[in-house]
């Protein structure tokens, strides 16, 4: 017993401090590893090719509001209603060859006749008269749409001016090609059909891309690499020999 008292064990406070130190070191190492994992994941995500060089989700690319919800079918009832309404309008104007003014007048005649007869016959049919709401269009949405349209139109004019100035041959050729394609498409169908096709594509292509983007992006990357190779060959054989003082990109 005396020997045990002469050689006491390590004090308990030192053991506790060692355990705390070991726990802190292990927790710090684990936190460092946890911090390294998101950094590695972010670096991997940064290396992934995205179509058109986008860095945001598809929903944010479309503005992240109600139009994005409609195009990406977040609310299936609203998306189906918009697409169904556009289809009905296209069928009326294209297949049934209805005119806009005729359709508006016939719709107003039917609505006014029903409401007028209902308002005068409610005593005979023993029903309450129709409650016709007062319609007041707010000014702010129209100003916002006009302002957004003005900004986009000014940007388009600025781009056309930059192209016409002759400083960028690549942009000039791309603009000529795009306008020629639009002219060919316009000769196939009228503006309403073209607008309807664009609306249908906006309801189909983005949602399919969002669903299969991990499979589409690698294919798009290969296609872009091949397009850049072909453009380099075309630039070396054709564009470089054109005597135009233009800054090619």
UniProtKB/TrEMBL annotation:
**Which keywords, in A-to-Z order, does the entry hold?**
Endoplasmic reticulum, Membrane, Transmembrane, Transmembrane helix
Give the span(s) annotated as Disordered. 1-42
Predominant place of localization: endoplasmic reticulum
Q: Give the membrane topology, semicolon-separated if more than one.
A: Multi-pass membrane protein
Transmembrane regions listed in the UniProt entry: 78-93, 99-119, 171-188
Q: What InterPro entries has UniProt attached to this entry?
A: Reticulon, Reticulon-like
The Reticulon domain sits at 67-247
Database matches in PANTHER family: RETICULON, RETICULON-LIKE PROTEIN
The protein depicted here goes by the name: Reticulon-like protein
- Source species of the chain: Citrus sinensis (Sweet orange)
Q: What is the lineage of its organism?
A: Eukaryota, Viridiplantae, Streptophyta, Embryophyta, Tracheophyta
């Amino acid at each position: 017993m005396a020997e045990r008292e002469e050689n006491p064990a390590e004090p308990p406070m030192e053991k506790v401090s060692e355990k705390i130190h070991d726990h802190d070191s292990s927790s710090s190492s684990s936190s460092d590893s946890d911090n390294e994992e998101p950094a590695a994941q972010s670096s991997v995500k940064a290396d992934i090719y995205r179509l058109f060089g986008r860095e945001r989700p598809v929903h944010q690319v479309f503005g992240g509001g109600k139009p994005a919800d409609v195009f990406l079918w977040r609310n299936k009832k609203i998306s189906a209603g918009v697409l169904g309404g556009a289809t009905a309008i296209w069928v009326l104007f294209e297949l049934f060859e209805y005119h806009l003014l005729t359709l508006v007048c016939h719709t107003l005649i039917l609505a006014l006749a029903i409401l007028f007869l209902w308002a005068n016959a409610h005593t005979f049919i023993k029903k309450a008269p129709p409650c016709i709401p007062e319609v007041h269009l707010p000014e702010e949405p129209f100003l916002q749409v006009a302002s957004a349209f003005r900004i986009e139109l000014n940007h388009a004019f600025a781009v056309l001016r930059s192209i016409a100035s002759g400083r960028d041959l690549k942009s000039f050729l791309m603009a000529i090609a795009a306008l020629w394609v639009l002219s060919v498409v316009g000769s196939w169908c009228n503006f309403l059909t073209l607008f309807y096709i664009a609306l249908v594509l906006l309801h189909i292509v983005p949602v399919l891309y969002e669903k299969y983007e991990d499979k589409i992006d690698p294919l798009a990357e290969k296609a872009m690499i091949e397009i850049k190779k072909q453009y380099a060959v075309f630039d070396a054989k054709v564009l470089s020999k054109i005597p135009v003082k233009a800054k090619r990109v």
